[in-house]
Amino acid sequence: xxxxxxxxxxxxxxxxxxxxxxxxxxxxxPADLRVGIMVEVPAAALKAAALAPMVDFLSxxxxxxxxYALAAERGNDAVAALADALDPGVLALIxxxxxxxxxxxxxxxxxxxxxxxxxxxxxxxxxxxELSAAPAAVGVVKQAVRDVDLARARGLAAAxxxxxxARAVRELLR
Length: 174
Fold this sequence. Notes:
This is PEP-utilising enzyme C-terminal domain-containing protein. There is one protein chain. By secondary structure, this protein is an alpha/beta fold. The protein is about 50% helix and about 10% strand. The chain is built from nine helices and four strands; from the N terminus they run αβααβααβαβααα. Strands 1-2-3-4 form a four-stranded parallel beta sheet. Helix 6 links the parallel strand 3 (about 105-110) and strand 4. Helix 6 (about 120-125) crosses helix 8 and helix 8 (about 150-160) runs antiparallel to helix 9.
């Protein structure tokens, strides 16, 4: 998985470096090798249609993407609260990633929001198909996913995208 991809050229170069390393190893390409990128910068989310055909998956980093989308470094206490993965602007980037990926690549989410069982339906409604949660959250998130009605989840996603802020999105999730 290649991190911090912003441009198609970066991905092409990274894939080239991977191919070179595989060739240098002399054992051929592993049959089960899956190649993906982290979607951590808004540009990658908005260019998902161009990036997706070159990878097997797009993993949306919901800790980093909000900080870059909202210009709010999560390590800076003065602005960290602004970097909220449930901000409608961030949700729009998640939706754009899923729409751009289409049938080319699986869309996954990692980060704290992936372990939030209340957000599971929303993420599925936005087009996410895999969640990478901390081990302690796997059971409750898995059950939440099992309980999702995808048509309702899509409606929830549409409503969340129309919200003015993350607080309003959280109210929808209750």
